[in-house]
Each structure stands twice: as C-alpha cells, then as structure tokens.
Amino acid sequence: MSLREVYVLILHHDIQLDELKEVCAGLEEEGVPYLLQEEKQLDTCIQLSAKAASNSPLQVGIGIDRFGNICVQHEKLEKDKPYLRGELKSSRKAGKNAARLVKGLSLTL
C-alpha cells in the first residue's frame, strides 16, 4: 500500500469546499492525509461517517451533512453511534480528533 492510499475519508452532502477548510486543516495539523468526496445518496452525518469509516483505509471517517452537522466514526464501532459528533463550526477540532484517533492519541478538548 502506498502513502497515497492511506487517508481519512471525508464524505459530505451538499457542502461548499470553502466550508470544509477547517476540518482539513485539523487533519493536516496532525499530519494525517485525507480524501474529500461528495455523497448525495446519504442524508445524515451519522450515515455519512459510517460509510466513510468503512471505506477509509485507516478505518476512520468523517461525515458532514447539509445542515452542518459533523460526525467522526471508527469502522469497528456501531454504525449508528459515532465516536464524536458536533457542528461544522467546530470542524477543525473534529479533524484534529479524527487524526488523533488514527494515531491512538488522546483527544483535544
């Protein structure tokens, strides 16, 4: 597996790319790569994050719904119970904590 194949998948539904900068910045600060994809078939951040986690090589995914709700999920957790849940306004912290989940570090408050 090459380095390009290792990433946290971020699935979003109807979110402008400029609104995703902060979540990406949080991942970048921790040195964890990511891949952004739009997903129009799923509606809730819970559904999006569960699919993202199951499709992510790192088993961690982020889902952002059209209302600005954000979830961080790990593939080994129950699909309807995300690891973290919040709002897009705190997305840098969500990105940072998703990266820390990958690295096995404690979360930031």
Entry summary:
The protein has 109 residues and is an alpha/beta fold. It is 30% helix and 23% strand. The protein has one domain: B12-dependent dehydatase associated subunit (Rossmann fold), CATH 3.40.50.
List keywords for this structure.
single chain, 109 residues, alpha/beta, Rossmann fold, five-stranded mixed β-sheet, 3 helices, 5 strands, Glycerol dehydratase reactivase beta/small subunit family protein, B12-dep_deHydtase_bsu, Dehydtase/Dehydtase_re
Q: List SSEs in N-to-C order.
A: EHEHEEEH
Q: Which fold name fills CATH's third level, the topology?
A: Rossmann fold
What is the average of the pLDDT values?
94
> What is the top-level CATH class?
Alpha Beta
CATH superfamily: B12-dependent dehydatase associated subunit
Q: Count of helical segments? A: 3
CATH architecture: 3-Layer(aba) Sandwich
How much strand content do the residues show?
15-25%
Number of strands: 5
Helix content: 25-40%
Shape: globular
Strand-pairing-aware structural class = alpha/beta
Q: What's the number of domains?
A: 1
Spatial separation of the terminal alpha carbons: 33 Å
Strand order of the largest sheet: 2-1-3-4-5
Poorly predicted runs are: none
Radius of gyration over alpha carbons? 12 Å
The major β-sheet equals: 5 strands, mixed
InterPro entries: B12-dep_deHydtase_bsu, Dehydtase/Dehydtase_re
Protein name: Glycerol dehydratase reactivase beta/small subunit family protein
Organism: Planococcus wigleyi
Pfam families: Dehydratase_MU
